[in-house]
Amino acid sequence: MGGFLADRYIGAFRAVYIGYSIYALGFLLLGVGASLVNIPLSIMAIALIGYARGLSATCPTVLLSNSFSDEHREDFQKGLTVNYSLNNLGSFTARYLFPFFIAAIAYQGNFFLSFTLMCCNLVMFWIFRKQLRAVGNHHDQQPLSIKVWMMFIAVSLTMLGLVFWVFSNLTEGKYLLYTLGAAAILYFITLIIRAPAVYKYRMCSVLVMLFIMICFYFYYGQMSTSMNLYAINLMGDRVLGFIPVMPESSAAFNPLWCFIMGGPMIFIYTWLEKKGISPSIPTKFAFAFVFSGMAFALLATSTQYIGNDGKFSANWILMVHFFQSVAELIVGALGVGFIIEMVPKSVSAFAMGLRAVTLSLSGILAAVISTKIALPKDIELTTEVINNVYTGYFTNLALAAFAMFFVTLILSRLIKRLIARSEAIACQEASLQPA
Question: Where in the cell (predicted)?
Answer without folding.
Answer: Membrane
